[in-house]
Design brief:
It is built from 8 helices and no strands. The longest helix has 16 residues. With 181 residues, the chain is mainly α. It has one domain: Hypothetical protein af1432 (Orthogonal Bundle). The chain is globular and about 55 Å long.
Length: 181
């Protein structure tokens, strides 16, 4: 069977749903390759910075790795801006949801909140509240998110930084995103 025969899901058979489940497992196993392709698209995205969004992501991940972060946090540093192309006004939420099934809650929270934390560095130039993140002060991962932004995110716009290539991070993506759920 290559395709289901139903035109409404309520008419599907057990055999059809088992076939679809197998296809879904195969598709999910290829997520690391789709993440690499999405990262590569960031090489030609938002303009105006001294580096591309891909270069920024590679710098952040390289900094995280060199600081001794674990594989989930390195993946977060690499993928934190993955949503820029499709969700420019809520990219952090999109990236967090992609990662949620595969990483611990702390990592998901940091990725989801990094946008508001990152605004600390520029919001005042737009007349906005650079301390908006203070509404989250007291959260158990507030400090970890502030550190993520300070050490890896806001500092990764340097065209002279010797970031590791994307190929270096492929095994890490395969490790994190092929984990059984």
């Amino acid at each position: 069977m290559k395709h289901v025969t139903f035109r409404q899901m309520k008419h599907g058979t057990e055999a059809e749903y088992h076939m679809l489940q197998g296809l879904e497992h195969s598709y999910a196993a290829a997520l690391p390759q789709r993440l690499v392709a999405a990262l590569q698209r960031l090489d030609d995205s938002l303009q105006g910075y001294l580096v591309t969004r891909l270069q920024h992501s590679l710098q952040a991940a390289t900094r995280a790795e060199r600081d001794g972060a674990d594989e989930q946090m390195i993946a977060a540093a690499l993928l934190h801006d993955l949503g820029d192309d499709l969700a420019p006004h809520n990219h952090a939420a999109l990236a967090a949801e992609i990662m949620r099934p595969y990483v611990r809650p702390e990592v998901t929270w940091i990725v989801a909140q990094h946008g508001i934390f990152q605004s600390y560095y520029y919001a005042h130039h737009y007349g906005a509240d650079r301390n908006a993140r203070d509404a989250l002060r007291g959260h158990e991962w507030f400090g970890a998110c502030a550190d993520f932004c300070e050490n890896w995110d806001q500092s990764s716009f340097d065209p002279d930084y010797d970031a590791l290539p994307l190929a270096h991070f492929v095994p890490l993506l395969e490790q994190v995103f092929r984990r059984p759920l």
